[in-house]
Amino acid sequence: MISYTKISEVKISHSYFDLEMTYPIQLKLSAATEQWVSKYGFTVTYFRDNIIRLYTQNSGDLKDRFQYVEKITGENAFVFELVTEENSFYQYTDVPVNELGRLVFNSNEGTKVDEGQIDLGKGRFEQGEYTKLAIIRLYFKDILSTEIFDLSFTARKTQWNYYIINQSSLDLSEPEITGSEEVLFEGPEEVILPNKQTALLFSSGLTLIPLSYRPKYKFKLVNNQSGTGRLTASRKIQKTIFQALPNPDPMNLEIKNASNNGDLASPMYVYV
User: Fold this and answer.
1) Whether residue 199 is found in the same domain as residue 266
2) What's the number of domains the chain is made of?
3) Which of 35, 201, 207, 222 fits a 20 to 30 Å CA distance from 145?
4) What are the residues whose beta carbons fall under 8 Å from the beta carbon of 85, sequence distance 6 or more?
5) Can you list the pairs that 114-120 forms with residues at least 24 positions away whose Cβ atoms lie under 8 Å?
6) Are 13 and 51 within one domain?
């Protein structure tokens, strides 16, 4: 009976998703690595909780075996490529939008966060034409002293723009978007849409908000009205116009400044 011993693992996280979700991405061995892995007694196992584990079926000194593999094959690392069938991954992940390239994660460029644990960081962007979004290299010398490699992706942050189209002629004399102390929306500003409709634009301005699979912010559209009470001459009455404003669609992005990859906006059109 063949027994396997775990030698290391990769934990994948993405701030766009909830922690308990299985992400629509996969790390697959590169063609070059796949040629020698099983031949020299190694195997890779993929788990649903976004973890990849490396195993060896051979006993003996791992360092000696790595040196032997490098001598015979010239390879000194396990190389993985990021694979996804979800096109929106490129939209909701914080990667450049105006450039062709891929993210590079090298274990020897990571940060030691604990004994036996390395954070691979945000990756280094490498320009060029590649078919995969990212490449991950786990070097033999780092695997010898590392039990866990953390591979993290960050959700893209955008400027959120709400276009309010008042097709019901509601009283919007003092409209406002509320719901979070962290985000104060600028506006409203009256704008003309490409279809010639008039809209009120509320924008998060310089405050960029991260995209998320499940809404983390709950904004609502209200209108502030003046009213008269029994004990006071006047008071503000806040009337809710739209209880739950939509969150952005990651596939719908606008480049606000072509010279700045981070200057992106998420337009949302709300009819009231």
Assistant:
1) yes
2) 2
3) 35
4) 24
5) 116/145, 116/146, 116/147, 116/148, 117/146, 117/147, 117/148, 117/149, 117/150, 118/142, 118/146, 118/148, 118/149, 118/150, 119/150, 119/152, 120/149, 120/150, 120/151, 120/152
6) yes
DSSP string covering 202-269: EE-TT--EE--SS-----EEEEEEEE--SSSS-EEEEEEEESSPPPPPTT--EES-TT-TT-EEEEEE
Task: Specify whether 90 is located in the same domain as 165.
Answer: no
192 and 91 inside one domain: no
DSSP state of 129: -
Nearby residues of 121 by Cβ (< 8 Å), 6 or more positions away: 105, 109, 110, 111, 152
What is the per-residue pLDDT across 157-208, written as a single tens digit (0 to 9) for each?
999 999 999 999 888 889 999 988 789 999 999 999 999 999 999 999 999 9
Single residue among 153, 179, 206 that ends a domain in this structure: 153
CA angle 269, 270, 272 (to 5 degrees): 150
Q: Quote the pLDDT of residue 80.
A: 95
Q: Are residues 149 and 163 in the same domain?
A: no
Total-model pTM: 0.85
Which residues, including other chains, have CB under 8 Å from residue 34's CB and lie 6 or more apart? none
Q: Which domain holds residue 266?
A: 157-271
